């Protein structure tokens, strides 16, 4: 069993038994490992102990991160927050053409959050999604549905190289990663606002709607978040409900928990 699958099993168990304060032995058993081996594996993956991770599941912790995220979006835009990513939008004609005359270099590789599919064009990364065992073909079909006329070439080695850059705890990029997206003007505003939310902060749908220029558009904002085809880099996992409950995620609620805990451990190593 790969590390992420063990992590996912542990997260699912912790989430279902959060009120019981499960001990390390019970959590490790769920992952099929001894307590000592599980602790080493979890700490190496998360940069935090299982106990610290349990703290990241609490509503009070999530609400404190929501306050931080609201402060960030209410502040003057800091170019440094989006400096690692450059968002390029497809024109209406390019969207209508469905990717005709465009080539997508695609590949599948492992990531800290399981198997991922990445598609890259000369304009930038156009797709990044995650899938569980048996989900490869569905993930490819989803990418193809966004760009049905594009030519596909496969290069898993190139994808593995990009993945290392994307998920490095301290990316060392010589230039911002380019993203190439298709969306409505409002969706683009939502995605650009998301790029201002740093790791370790969370935002509510209402706060994000305000940042995108329409305070009353929480539902449309939720739809825009759900239509994001470039996971992680456009960080829709950092959007949760006002109550502090993480809510749904296009690539699975357990994976969303894993992402938030992974980021929190690296953004707040001293704990919160």
Task: Describe how the helices and strands are arranged.
Layout: H1 3-16, H2 24-31, H3 35-46, H4 50-56, H5 59-74, H6 79-82, E1 85-89, H7 92-97, E2 103-111, E3 114-121, E4 124-131, H8 136-146, E5 151-154, H9 156-167, E6 177-181, H10 185-194, E7 203-204, H11 205-211, H12 218-227, E8 239-240, H13 253-267
Parallel strand pairs: 1-6, 2-5, 7-8
Antiparallel strand pairs: 2-3, 3-4
Helix pairs in contact: 1-2, 1-13, 2-3, 10-12, 11-12
Mean pLDDT level: 85
Span of the ends, CA to CA: 31 Å
CATH fold naming of the largest domain: Arc Repressor Mutant, subunit A
- The CATH architecture assignment of the largest domain turns out to be Orthogonal Bundle
Supply the helix-strand structural class: alpha/beta
The percent range for strand residues is 15-25%
Number of helical runs?
13
CATH homologous superfamily descriptor of the largest domain: Winged helix-like DNA-binding domain superfamily/Winged helix DNA-binding domain
User: What global shape is seen?
Assistant: globular
Largest sheet strand order? 4-3-2-5
Helix-strand string: HHHHHHEHEEEHEHEHEHHEH
CATH class of the largest domain: Mainly Alpha
Overall tally of domains = 2
Q: Tell me the total number of β-strands.
A: 8
Low-confidence stretches: none
Biggest sheet details: 4 strands, mixed
Radius of gyration: 19 Å
Helical amount = 40-55%
């Amino acid at each position: 069993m790969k590390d992420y699958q063990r992590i996912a099993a542990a997260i699912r168990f912790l989430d279902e038994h959060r009120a019981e304060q499960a001990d390390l032995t019970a959590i490790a058993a769920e992952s099929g490992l001894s307590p000592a081996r599980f602790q080493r594996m979890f700490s190496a993956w998360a940069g935090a102990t299982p106990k610290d991770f349990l703290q990241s599941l609490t509503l009070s912790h999530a609400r404190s991160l929501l306050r931080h995220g609201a402060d960030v979006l209410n502040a003057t835009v800091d170019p440094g927050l989006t400096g690692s990513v450059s968002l390029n939008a497809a024109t209406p004609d390019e969207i209508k053409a469905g990717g005709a005359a465009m080539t997508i270099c695609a590949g599948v590789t492992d990531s800290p959050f399981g198997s991922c599919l990445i598609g890259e064009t000369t304009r930038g990364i156009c797709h990044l999604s995650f899938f569980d065992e048996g989900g490869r073909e569905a993930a490819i079909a989803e990418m193809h549905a966004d760009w049905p006329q594009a030519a596909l070439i496969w290069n898993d080695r190139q994808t593995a190289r990009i993945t290392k850059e994307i998920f490095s705890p301290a990316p060392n990029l010589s230039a911002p990663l380019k993203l190439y997206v298709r969306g409505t003007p409002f969706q683009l505003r939502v995605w650009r606002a998301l790029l201002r939310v740093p790791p370790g902060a969370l935002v509510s749908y209402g706060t994000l709607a305000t940042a995108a220029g329409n305070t009353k558009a929480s539902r449309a904002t939720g739809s825009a978040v759900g239509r994001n085809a470039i996971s992680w880099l456009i960080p829709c996992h950092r959007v949760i409900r006002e109550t502090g409950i993480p809510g749904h995620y296009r690539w699975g609620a357990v994976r969303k928990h894993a992402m938030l805990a992974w980021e929190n451990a690296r953004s707040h190593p001293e704990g919160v």
